Amino acid sequence: MLAASWLVLIFWGVDWAIVSVTLCLFGAIGIFIFTRPSPQDEDCITPDNIIMYKGCKVYSDIRAYADPEVFHE
Hints:
The chain has helices at about 1-10, 15-35, 60-65. The chain has about 70 residues and is mainly alpha-helical. The protein is elongated. The chain starts with a helix and ends in a 7-residue tail after the last helix. The relative contact order is 0.06. The mean pLDDT is about 70.
């Protein structure tokens, strides 16, 4: 349906600059989506390669933010 509406707009005299800019925008979004790095799987992350943030001294502190049942204060 979207392709049909684009064809109608193109053949009924829409400015080619608008069509070109829109196609470039969609192309850039597509390139970004298909070339971005994939997120890490939680099973692949070990305590050794977790980034230590300010205020998080140990791995259990980091887990406390993700899992409230780890700490019972």
